[in-house]
Amino acid sequence: MDKIMNKLKKEIQEFKYKNYENLELFRIKFLGKKKGILTLLFKELKKYPINKRKFYGKIINTLKKNVQNKIQRYTSKKSLKDENMIFDPTIPGKSIEIGSMHPISILKNRMIEIFRKIGFFYVEGPEIEDDWHNFTALNIPINHPSRDMQDTFFLYKNPDILLRTHTSSVQIRYMKKNSPPFRVLSIGKVFRNETISSRSHFMFHQAEGFYIDKKVSFSDLKQTIQYLINSLFGKAKIRFRPSYFPFTEPSAEVDIYFGNNTGWVEIMGCGMIDPKVLKNVNIDSEIYSGFAFGIGIERLSLLIYKVHDIRIYFDNDIRFLRQFKSDF
Question: Which terminus of the chain faces fewer neighbouring Cβ atoms within 10 Å, N or C?
């Protein structure tokens, strides 16, 4: 016991203050409530006879006071002043490298804000879907030729479970649980078995917007699309071309004019929601009508940022990402 006391006394005397971190470790080591050395020694005294208890108790108390005096000394105002004097504010700090916002995330946030201003609110849905939400409820029955338009990643059959091919499945899920009127925007990943090239990828992000109310017309759709394009590109010339989608009738492709050098560029599809789709989610098409549109975020981003290869968005090259600044 005497050897232990002498060793502790020497260790306390030789303690050198470096910073508050090593002072706190010193305090915990000797005075910690559960595992402090002096705390444990006080508990150990119970095993000794009364005469030895008094003798060693006095020594332990002295060691405890020495520790407390050291701590008090180094936490005094003088020590704080001395430590501040050691700090040199002219020395450069350690730089911390932080990431950049991805251009797809920037554009996603921008679109959410654009549509929020005209009463749309944002929802999300699952990326793994069943056949009914992804196809059948959208007026795409099992033998419908339009299924050939989207080469699908099926996870397993019976029931058919797949990676969603469009965010239109969110439209079905939302309309099943809510009653009109509503204006909704959803953005997320979609998957199609396509050859990867500078203009296509097996995974991309799609924005789906839909608006259902009484007396919604194609004119409302056109005004909404024009508002979106103007918000993204400034005042721009667009055109609507008749097209075909099984879940909208009539349907249209939207092109934007980029001048004589580029000409017209297709950017999205849209249309009035087919009454059969409304029926599938128990919405009375005699009372309500609505429109929907879908647009690829990567395609928009290629045009806005003048990027010529879609694959670079998935490389996560920090040199590329550093070029983009968020407006939000």
Answer: C
